[in-house]
Design brief:
Elements: E1 3-4, E2 8-15, E3 20-27, H1 29-32, H2 35-49, E4 59-65, E5 68-74, H3 81-88, H4 93-112, E6 115-116, E7 125-127, E8 133-135, E9 142-143, H5 165-169, H6 176-182
Antiparallel strand pairs: 1-2, 2-3, 3-5, 4-5, 6-9, 7-8
């Protein structure tokens, strides 16, 4: 396991066919039988797969094994921004600015595709071994003008400490400005 979240676990896995390491996000068993959560999980895979950008984690595959949905993603082995700070202490200003620029570029690419992440935070920015930042976890993203309507009006999604005030009131109605606030 690389990490455990509220609804899924991410594992480091070896793709035997392609002979490369990957990250595999698996929906927790207690959520796999709930169609709305399964649909949201698969929507995350579609959303991330539609975003090909050097500062967004790539998705390679999605499927189900034994009833559990999974997403196969690029393995970003440097941990999160939070992990980096825990290991090294506060980032020097120049490095912090560079990390923010890269994160902003990834978020901007999502916005260009009319995708609002809605959970931008240091925990959702991974760092490659070369020091490049990649935005991940589009699990509660909103695709503007989509027909899936996976968010109920009045529902609150995101992480409170990074959330724009309007997102705290109703996550369905937010636009790209909510991500800018989080950044």
């Amino acid at each position: 396991p690389l990490g455990v979240g509220g609804m899924a676990t991410v594992f480091k896995a070896f793709d035997q066919r392609l002979q490369v390491w990957r990250a595999v996000k698996v929906l927790a068993p207690q959520y796999s039988n709930r169609p709305s959560l399964r649909d949201r999980f698969e929507a995350e895979a579609r959303t991330m797969a539609s975003l090909e950008h050097r500062h967004i984690v790539r998705v390679y595959d999605v499927g189900r094994a034994g009833g559990s949905p999974y997403i196969v993603m690029e393995l970003v082995d440097g941990g999160t921004l939070v992990d980096w700070v825990k290991q090294h202490g506060p980032m020097p200003p120049r490095l912090a600015v560079d990390a923010m620029i890269q994160t902003c570029e990834g978020v901007s690419a999502a916005h260009a595709r009319r995708i609002v992440h809605r959970d931008i935070k240091p925990h959702n920015v991974l760092i490659t071994a070369e020091g490049r930042c990649r935005v991940t976890d589009f699990g509660i993203a909103r695709v503007e003008d989509d027909n899936e309507h996976l968010t109920r009006t009045g529902a609150v999604f995101g992480t409170w400490a990074y959330m724009a005030p309007e997102q705290r009131a109703d996550a369905k109605k937010v636009d790209a400005r909510a991500d800018v606030y989080s950044l």
